[in-house]
Design a protein that fits this description.
Elements lengths: L4 H12 L4 E3 L6 E5 L2 E3 L1 H13 L7 E5 L5 H12 L16 H4 L19 E4 L8 H4 L5 E6 L2 H15 L9 H9 L8 H14 L4 E5 H6 L1 H11 L6 H5 L2 H8 L2 H5 L2 H5 L29 H15 L7
Parallel strand pairs: 4-5, 4-6, 6-7
Antiparallel strand pairs: 1-2, 2-3
Helix pairs in contact: 1-2
The structure holds adenosine-3'-5'-diphosphate (A3P).
Family: Belongs to the sulfotransferase 1 family.
InterPro entries: P-loop_NTPase, Sulfotransferase_dom
Enzyme class: transferase
């Protein structure tokens, strides 16, 4: 049965209202529980619509992540890799548009199958692996790249992000309270460890289709992992490019240092109707281990223990 977009959205909204709901970290944004994960209704709407309506094209590349785990960076790097023959590092759209504009979120793509930008087959999503459209999970022509991050850093980043994005009249949640919720799995796309595990297992089972990256590894050896990424998504660097320093240039273009200092990422808006500059909320510190400045050793231990227990026997650790 082909529904119109408006009808489909209406049905999804109706369905969502039947799901378990809890307050998120901001009372103005409730979290809904869907297929084992908590998330905001606007994310959920596009995930459910995609499950019903998304039609993959050969060569599509899904860029997947839990929030605050390196989404912006992965978007920038993948965009730079895929478009490197169209632009050089002096005229890349990344210099004037910002990563989330260059690779827009797919809110909306479910109703307009052709929102892919020509030549840029990148489709970002925060959906857990098992919530990706069946058409994607079953496809041999679609690649999935996942980036994850030490949950301690992802938590701290999420805490800051939520503080920056809340309406000014709202008091911000205390870090202890947010931490408690995070440990219970009640965060955007929480439980965080289950999000990671879904993609980890998929990458073990289908290594040629699902690539698993860690923010920390990408930071420590950018050159190695950017080369792997390029190869995996089907845009490998040639010997000449490697010799000519193209990889290094691309890494520098996408570095936190470079991107966070561009005007567009300091003062630009992500959506036209945003009241304030929102691009800058995606660039906070860009460091590994910032949790040490915000979590007590007890908090860190507690989260480490949860994560270790959940990941035990899987071959994955942080
Ligand atoms: P911090 O809050 O630790 O600084 P996401 O992109 O998934 O929303 O994650 C945001 C986190 O990635 C923030 O972490 C942000 O500073 C960091 N980040 C953004 N752009 C980056 C880049 N180009 N390189 C490294 N880290 C980046």
């Amino acid at each position: 049965e082909e529904l119109s977009s408006a009808e489909a959205i209406e049905r999804v909204v109706e369905f969502m209202s039947t799901l378990p709901t809890e307050n998120g970290w901001n009372s103005f944004q409730p979290l809904r529980l869907y297929e084992g994960f908590w998330t905001f209704p606007h994310f959920l709407e596009s995930i459910i619509l995609a499950q019903h309506r998304f039609k993959p094209k050969p060569g599509d590349i899904f860029l997947c992540s839990a929030p605050k785990s390196g989404t912006t960076w992965l978007k920038a790097l993948s965009f730079a890799i895929v478009t490197r023959n169209l632009y050089d590092t002096s005229n890349s759209p990344l210099l004037t548009k910002g990563p989330h504009h260059c690779v827009p979120n797919m809110v909306g793509f479910e109703y307009k199958p052709d929102v892919r930008q020509p030549g840029i087959p990148l489709i970002p999503t925060h959906a857990p692996y098992h919530c990706l459209p069946k058409s994607v999970l079953g496809s041999d022509d679609v690649k999935v790249v996942y980036i994850c991050r030490d949950p301690k850093d992802a938590f701290v980043s999420m805490f800051h992000f939520a503080a920056n994005r809340r309406p000014k009249e709202n008091e911000h949640i205390a870090i202890e309270e947010a931490f408690e919720l995070f440990c219970l799995g009640r965060s955007v796309f929480g439980p965080a460890w289950d999000h990671i595990l879904g993609y980890w297992k998929a990458s073990q089972e289908r290594p040629e289709k699902v690539m698993f990256l860690k923010y920390e590894e990408l930071m420590n050896d950018s050159e190695l992992y950017v080369k792997k990424l390029a190869e995996f998504i089907g845009y490998p660097f040639s010997f000449e490019e490697e010799q000519g320093g193209v990889v290094k240039k691309l890494i520098d273009l996408c570095s936190f240092e470079n991107l966070s200092n561009l005007d567009v990422n300091k003062t630009g808006k992500r959506h036209e109707d945003d009241d304030e500059a929102t691009n800058k909320t995606f660039f906070i510190k860009g460091k590994v281990g910032d949790w040490q400045n915000h979590l007590t050793p007890e908090m860190a231990n507690r989260l480490d223990n949860i994560v270790e227990q959940k990941l035990s026997g899987t071959g994955l650790s942080f």
